[in-house]
Amino acid sequence: MSEPFDAIVIGAGAAGSAAAWQLARDGQRTLLLEQFKIGHTQGSSHGESRIFRFAYPQPEYAKFAIQSKPLWLDLERASGQKLLHSIGGLDFADDPDCFHEVRQIAAALKQNGAACELLNAQQIRQRFPQFNISDQTIGCYSPDGGWIAATKAIRAMADQVTALGGSVREEEPVKTIWGTNHSFRITTSKSSYTAPRVVIAAGAWMKSLLMGDKVLGFHYEGADVNEADARLCKALDQIADLQLKVTQEQPVYFAPIAKADSFREDRFPIWIHYRKPFFTYGFPMIETPGVKLAFHHDGPVINPANLDRTPNPEVSRRLREYLQTYLPDAASEVVEEVTCLYTTTIDHNFIIDTIPSFPNIAIASPCSGHGFKFATGIGRALADLVQHGRTEMEISLCRFFKRPSPAPGGS
Ligand SMILES: Cc1cc2nc3c(=O)[nH]c(=O)nc-3n(C[C@H](O)[C@H](O)[C@H](O)COP(=O)(O)OP(=O)(O)OC[C@H]3O[C@@H](n4cnc5c(N)ncnc54)[C@H](O)[C@@H]3O)c2cc1C
Question: pTM for the complete prediction?
């Protein structure tokens, strides 16, 4: 498709690909721009699997995940591929300081009409004897938990953009964004494009794109230019205040020592172990011959422009130690170490919003290590916001410019 475009989406990770797909579905002539190749391994969205779950302590996220599921099924139908595998999920805690999170999950699921079972240690052992847990452990089992085929889903969404008449341009980094109230001009390494609506979903590069050296400029025609600039600067300062911390995280696959069949996805769930300061999570064996697990929010702060992807053997050692305690049959050799970036806000809620006074430009920073499951819903919300200024998606915790001052913490 050639210009003019109705909408331009910057960044083809989970959020941007989904936004472009939803805009194309709405009949918008859509351009999706990606600085690397679709499915690349430099950002946050690559890999075999991401956890899908309704199971959140916050009812808002539980509802948002529930709203996102039918859109994943739409993507499966459109692409003819199995992408969402609902195999069941177990959230558990053995530290009494974390019991409230398991109980809040059960309450949030019930509030949203989703199925769940509260389990004691004996019931967990009966169902999943792979876990070596203490007698005081409690858990919440959700049959809707499972995993999404991550890289395949990104490719499927980008392919849908093309199939619906949109355009996907790879290896074309955006250099500048210049806007008026009628139209935005986006300049890339190869060309420049205009459209009345823009979505910025640049992941770990968000801050440098928004705050970079005059990368983003707006001129609001008909309004007092100084006043509009001041409002924009204030909005961008607020984003900067959140610091959008980028960390390098390291999930690791381990080959089982024994009873390998018991870690297959028809016998073993996705799981989250609520602990302090953050949870540990894991998957059954899927295609890679090993169970995958990781510590949530564990990695060092890095600069994505200067990424050293060498795995840290100390992380793998600590993960094996974890397995020796909680899943002893799974604690054998490392099969694969993966590096991936978290872009995290102070309160660990997402940013999914339009910029005040600039309703045609939406920003999305939906990571903090838990955004993939919502990608289809995030795409729907972004498409709604730039076209209509509102959405039915439950993003109340993510409306950055409407929420109260964030408190450090997170889900
Ligand atoms: C190790 C790990 C495990 C995770 N596990 C889970 C999980 O189990 N469940 C879950 O729900 N979530 C999980 N997440 C979080 C989830 O993967 C992220 O929330 C999601 O992938 C973020 O997608 P994104 O589109 O915001 O960012 P990204 O995937 O980084 O996409 C941003 C894209 O923008 C492109 N871009 C940047 N700047 C430019 C530019 N100037 N021009 C053009 N393109 C540009 C980048 O190249 C990139 O492709 C995990 C994340 C990690 C790292």
Answer: 0.94
* Residue 162 confidence (pLDDT) above 70: yes
> In this predicted model, what pLDDT tens digit does every residue of 369-390 receive, in sequence order?
999 999 999 999 999 999 999 9
Q: Which two tokens stand for residue 137?
A: 């452990």
HEC profile of 149-208: CHHHHHHHHHHHHHHCCCEEECCCCEEEEEECCCCEEEEECCCEEEECEEEECCHHHHHH
pLDDT at 208: 77
**Which tokens is 71 given?**
């859109």
Fold of the CATH domain 3-46+151-243+347-402: FAD/NAD(P)-binding domain (3.50.50)
Q: Give the tens place of pLDDT for each residue, 303-342.
A: 888 888 899 999 999 999 999 999 999 999 999 999 999 9
The set of residues, in sequence order, having a beta carbon less than 8 Å from that of 305 and lying 6+ positions away, is 208
How many alpha carbons fall within 13 Å on the CB side of residue 319? 32
Q: Coil, strand, or helix at residue 92? A: strand
Considering only CA atoms, which residue is closest to atom 13 of ligand 1?
370
Q: What is the pLDDT of residue 227?
A: 61
Model pLDDT, residue 233: 64
**CATH of region 87-145+246-344, choose from 3.30.1700.10, 3.30.70.360, 3.10.20.310, 3.30.9.10:** 3.30.9.10
Element (H, E) at 31: strand 30-33
Ligand 1 pocket: which residues have CB below 6 Å? Answer: 10-16, 33-36, 43-45, 50-51, 173-174, 201-205, 209, 249, 251, 294, 340-342, 366-367, 369-373
At CA 30, angle to CA 161 and CA 400, rounded to 5? 100
Question: Which tens digits make up the pLDDT trace of 189-203?
Answer: 999 999 999 999 999
Ligand 1 atom nearest 370 alpha carbon: 12
Strands 174-179 and 216-218: parallel
In this structure, the residue with its CA closest to atom 41 of ligand 1 is: 174
Reading the block at residue 360, the tokens are: 């045609």
